[in-house]
Design goal:
about 75% helix
């Protein structure tokens, strides 16, 4: 019974009767689903049972944290993982290759919360009071804030969808601080992102490096690569221009999947680094039986996952001309 699961000891018969009517649980399942679709069409994800606030407002407040963390973690994974995989493929079975793959295996096998606590211990405790010290939690230091876009641009009277978009963008501190010139807050937000982004991005980094290596090794053994070498092209041109671009299709696929995984799986990272994002909010909602929040957040995560993978599929035509529509 949702009422007794949510309210516990407070769930008297009278309270549960009102609860069931309020949330439409006395209607047949098809009717409930139709009501929900009608609410979605109006941009209404329902009202949080625990917070007594619209789920849309919670999303506008919490989603920017997860988006910011996910994007930075994925950039870290791509910037390190792809070159690492390329170097391993070019120097197969060399000390560089063996060291990179051992590191990748360690990265895949280490739990996020263990790595997060380890990074906090080193950079926030052992290196405290040095130039290498980094914040252990939160998004901004005490006394530092990012002024919302509606205030910077003099749009405090804005309402509706535009206000929601501006508030959402304001919550992405790195973006909003950069476009409004709040460079002190921008630098502080970057420093707070480094450790959680490394902790969250290590596993995708390892996976991307391994996929890049295996895909490039397969491509380097194909006939057209040998032909390019026989024509006298420099090895760098052969690897970068001919082999790497054609080897990127499985890598891009994995990157798209990892983005969805990061977006949905940042619970441990957000809890370890005290970040109020989607993952932590979803965990609290599941623990508190706040079904409306769980439903709304999972819907948004699923839509984001589908959109990202659609973008990945469309990018195939740019990376490989052979699959472009004729």
């Amino acid at each position: 019974d949702p009422c007794r699961a949510v309210l516990g000891e407070r769930a008297t018969d009278a309270v549960c009767d009102a609860f069931i009517v309020r949330y439409g649980l006395d209607q047949p399942i098809p009717v409930q689903f139709g009501i929900y679709l009608g609410q979605l069409a109006q941009g209404d994800l329902g009202m949080s049972i625990k917070h007594s606030r619209p789920v849309t407002q919670l999303l506008i407040e919490r989603l920017p944290t997860t988006v910011e963390l996910t994007v930075v973690a994925l950039i870290f994974a791509i910037v390190i993982g792809v070159p690492l995989g390329i170097a391993s493929a070019i120097r197969r079975n060399s000390p560089i290759d063996v060291g990179a793959m051992v590191t990748a295996n360690l990265g895949v096998s280490m739990p996020v919360f263990v790595l997060g606590l380890f990074l906090q211990f080193i950079f926030a405790l052992l290196l405290k009071n040095t130039f290498l010290a980094l914040p252990a939690s939160g998004r901004l230091s005490a006394g530092i804030s990012v002024e919302p876009l509606v205030q910077v641009w003099g749009m405090t009277g804005t309402t509706g969808i535009l206000r929601g978009i501006l508030d959402f963008l304001s919550g992405i501190y790195v973006f909003s601080a950069a476009i409004t010139g709040q460079w002190g807050a921008w630098l502080d937000a970057i420093r707070h992102l480094i450790l959680p982004a490394i902790a969250l991005g290590t596993i995708p980094l390892a996976i991307i490096a391994r996929i890049t290596r295996s895909s490039l090794l397969e491509t380097l053994g194909l006939d057209y690569v040998r032909t390019a070498r026989a024509k006298g092209l420099r090895e760098r041109a052969v690897v970068i221009r001919h082999a790497t671009r054609n080897a990127l299709l499985p890598v891009v696929t994995v990157i798209g999947l990892q983005f969805g995984g990061l977006f949905a799986g940042a619970v441990l990272t957000e809890s370890t680094f005290n970040l109020a994002g989607v993952g932590r909010t979803l965990f609290e909602a599941i623990s508190g039986r706040d079904y409306v929040v769980v439903q709304g957040f999972i819907l948004i995560i699923a839509v984001a996952y589908v959109v990202v993978n659609l973008i990945v599929d469309v990018s195939y035509g740019y990376l490989d001309p052979r699959i472009r529509p004729r």
